[in-house]
Structures are given as C-alpha cells and as structure tokens.
What we know:
It is rod-shaped, with a radius of gyration of 28 Å. The relative contact order is 0.17. The N and C termini lie far apart (98 Å). Strands 1-2-3-4 form a four-stranded antiparallel beta sheet. It is an alpha+beta fold. The chain has helices spanning 2-13, 18-64, 84-95, 149-154; strands at residues 74-78, 116-124, 134-142, 164-169. The chain is built from four helices and four strands. 45% of the residues lie in helices and 17% in strands. The chain has one domain. Helix 2 runs antiparallel to helix 3. The mean pLDDT is 84.
Amino acid sequence: MAGRFSFLRRFGRDVAGSAAVETVLIMPLAILVMVAAMEAGNYLYSEHQVVKGVRDAARFAGRVLPLSTCASASAEADLPSSDPAWQTIANVAVYGSTANTGPRRLWTWNANGTDVIIRYACVAQTGLYTSTGFAPQIAVIGKPTYPSLFGTMTGLTSSYRLYSRQQAAGVGI
C-alpha cells in the first residue's frame, strides 16, 4: 500500500512535460484570439473601403449632376438607373473609376441597384444657388455584403451587409 502512494507522490513532483500540457490547454484560446483579431482587422478594412467608395461617388455625383435639374423643391427619390450618370456614379463607388473595369474595392461589391443606391433631392437654398433658389442634394448609399475571412475559409456565406451613406451638394460642371 505504501508503494502505491509513493508513486503518486513522485508523479505529483515530476514536472517533465508540463510545458507541453500547458501548451495543449492554451492553444485553442490562442487560436481563437488570433482568428478574432484577423476578422476584426478585415471588418475595419472592408468598412473603410465602403466609406471611401461612397464618399468618392458622392463628390463625383455633386460635380456631374447639373444644377438646372432643380427648378422646384422635391423630396428625396432614387435616381433612376436609366439616367446616364447613374452607372458612372456607381462605378466610382465600386471600382474607384468611371469605367466598369479593374479591381473592385471589395470583391463582394457590385455596381448594381442592390449594392449601390443613388438618391437625389432639390432643397430650397440661398447664396450660391440664388439663380434657381434650389440646390440639388445627392446621397450615395453603399450596401455590399461583408466578405468575412472566416466565412471565406470555411465556405459559409455571409448575409451581413456593410452600410455607408454620404451626401453632397450638387455644384454642376
């Protein structure tokens, strides 16, 4: 009986292999923290790309859409996709250029009516707009699907959408 307890005492004092056991215990948590940090960085980068694209498109739209279209006040309404400027503005948001070519800011973002919405309103103004009394107000909204790193690696699709809205006053060319 005494021999059995002496074995347990010796086993309790033995530290050989304790580092391997600690590593095995901490490894799942370390991997989880690392993957979460990578996913957070990807989210911030993706959100930045959407904000940047929408901001560029709103500025561009403010220069492209003419002042002459505002003769009276109007509520905000979607700019029809049949308008010649619509596709060009959407391309600036998604591609960073007026052409529908090249790499997209996010690979899940498309220059279509679902991912990009362009709205136009005429609001009463004074000052710069005294000739018409109304100023065009353009809003560009970007809503691409979030390209999750974890979802991409596992093959799971993400239904989460990023969202950004930017307004600009129309100044025409």
